[in-house]
Amino acid sequence: MLKTLYKYPNEAGTDEAGRGCLAGPVTAAAIILPDDFKNTLLNDSKQLSEAKRDILRPILEKEAVSFSVCHVFQDEIDEINILNASFLAMHRALDDMHHKPDFILVDGNRFKPYPSISHECIIKGDGKFMSIAAASILAKTYRDAYMAAIHEEFPMYNWKKNKGYPTKEHREAIKKYGLTKYHRKSFRQLPEQLTLDI
Q1: What's the main place this protein lives (predicted)?
Q2: How far apart are the C-alpha atoms of 130 and 113, rounded to whole Å?
């Protein structure tokens, strides 16, 4: 059972999606839910089907006190590394909220402190708190929609299905067609090849 609040009213949950991908942005969401918000479907986005996430997204957007979603794209990821890009995406999502939170709940165990607002890192928080679960759903659905859109430009990588993650199919396409402008150049795109000098 997800908890509504950690210990403060006006808490924002924040989470990111796409950290382990080879292509596309890392996407973060921040959301403040009403104190009395209830939804039996709401859970960690990884535990929900795509159809259920798509049902929840407009409900969360409508019911939220405030929410924001932000992409940090591959060029910036390559420049500052994926961990810093994840923090940056969460900070930008918090920056864009029209209603500022009193406290921030962060999924995971690391976060770069946000100016003048205290935070708490919650390991597996998307399975414990509604606001983090809601942020995980918004981050995932917005990123998936973006990957489906760029799939049309480069269908051979099948981003509509793999969302840029390092599946066997995605790696085979990289071997065959090379990298696109959407790939993260700082990531190891293909496993190292072992050769024997005999």
Answers
A1: cytoplasm
A2: 21
**Residues that constitute the known binding site:** 15-16, 107
| 11-177 CATH fold | Nucleotidyltransferase; domain 5 (3.30.420)
Please tell me whether the overall predicted TM-score, pTM, comes out greater than 0.85 for this model: yes
pLDDT, tens digit, 9 for 90 and up, residues 25-35: 999 999 999 99
Instruction: Tell how strand 11-17 and strand 103-107 pair up.
Output: parallel
Give the pLDDT score at 191: 64
| CB contact at 8 A, 75 and 59 | no
In which element (H, E) is residue 169 found? helix 168-177
158, 170 contact by CB (below 8 A) = yes
Domain residue extents for the chain: 11-177
Q: Which residues contact 39 (CB under 8 A, 6 or more apart)?
A: 56, 59, 130
